[in-house]
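Notes taken during the Thursday session

The instructor put the following on the board and asked us to keep it in front of us for the whole hour. The protein is WAT1-related protein. We were told not to look anything up and to reason only from what is written here. First, the residues (67 in total):
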Amino acid sequence: MRHILCHSVSNNQRCCLLKGLLFYFTSSSTSSQFFGYAGIYYSSPTLSTAMLNLVPGFTFILAIIFG
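Then, after some discussion, the predicted structure tokens were revealed:
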């Protein structure tokens, strides 16, 4: 059944689906960063400094999990 389903979708439809997914993930990532920095901006300077210093640590942990 899966073999039939894959061949029933044309290349144009696959391209549109891929572009839509790419736009969704790009926009959600960008908005996440925007709201994250906005939250840090409205908080205390101590919290913003601590959070910005933790970013490399979070990145390393995510790299271990997903890598």
